[in-house]
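As promised in the previous annual report, we have extended the structural survey to additional targets. Below is the entry for LacI family DNA-binding transcriptional regulator.
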Amino acid sequence: MTDRRKLPPAAAAPDAEEGAGVTRVTPPPRVSIRHVAETAGVSLKTVSRVINDDPAVRPEMRERVRQAIAALNYQSDPLARSLRSAHSFAIGLVYSNPNAQYLVSLQNGVLSACREQGYGLQIHPCSTPAHGSVQELLALVQRSRLAGLVLAPPMSEQRDLIEALAAHGVVVIRIVSAGEDPRDVQDSVRVDDRRAAHAITEHLIQLGHSRIAFLWGDSYYQSSVQRYAGYMDAMRDYGVDVDAGLVLEGEFNFNSGFRRARKLLALTAPPTAVFGSNDEIAAGVLAAARSVGFDVPGDLAIAGFEDSPFAQLSWPPLTTARQDTVEIGRRAALRLIERVRQTQSGKAAEPIAEIFTPELVVRGSTAPPRRR
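The corresponding structure token record, generated without further manual editing, is:
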């Protein structure tokens, strides 16, 4: 006889299909702002004010809510917050840089700041430096309800674009190479490529090199211009003559470095050292040197810039200038969010700037020149 007693609630809860051998378990509900309020013993409004960094919340109340958020691992939804509020809680990162390693590092830095501050991130690539138009970026800001934009080079170096965005009230923080233009100090995170390039060239000169080649990156990047300026500064400071035949224009990639190095190494009097505008160029120089039987660093010293995996994984590893792209991206995003909050609160804000100087890292690819 079948026992038809009613199952207790706990046994009746699972949603199962007889004979299917599969039990469907309803996933636990997502932690909501209501759970945070109940755990902290405060109102929903108080939790909302803490999440939105309302300065009027008492410190002890703020701490209670933050402890509840941490205990519950609560993650706010930036889009939902933006829809509920007159303010936006998402920013954009705009770039047209083909260097994959640079972009990954930059995105990681911006994303870490967004997570820290409870903001969403919209990534918007432009196919070429001239592709990004004012209309395109204004449409992006409006469509995605963005509070502001982080612009990476070379987009960040287009003066007309920056001024047009400002005229339309778009909050922008730029990542730029620190140049001579005093307007570059405004609302930017600056990289002092010139000083770092001077340090690299100085290192080669102090090793005893005088025939030092310089390989440009793409000339429409201010970083190329500034790195060349730093190279020239050091050569001038030490009274070393610059052979124009050892300064070659090109692109920020391995193949460009390889091709130009083969030209240099075929000269009757080849250089004893090569400074590539980035590590990818320098890695191409290293491959070219090996292809014609040059020993590195004995016959040819090589230096790059940025401290990318190209520098760290080459053999010998490359002397370079370490550029903390992750931290640069993080600081740019934090600066943007700070500026957005000032704008939303109606507070007057002074132009802000922060400078990063890449640090010289000496590795096995550079040594004093051999006598020929």
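The mean pLDDT is 84. The first helix runs from residue 9 to 12. These points will be discussed at the next consortium meeting with the crystallography subgroup.
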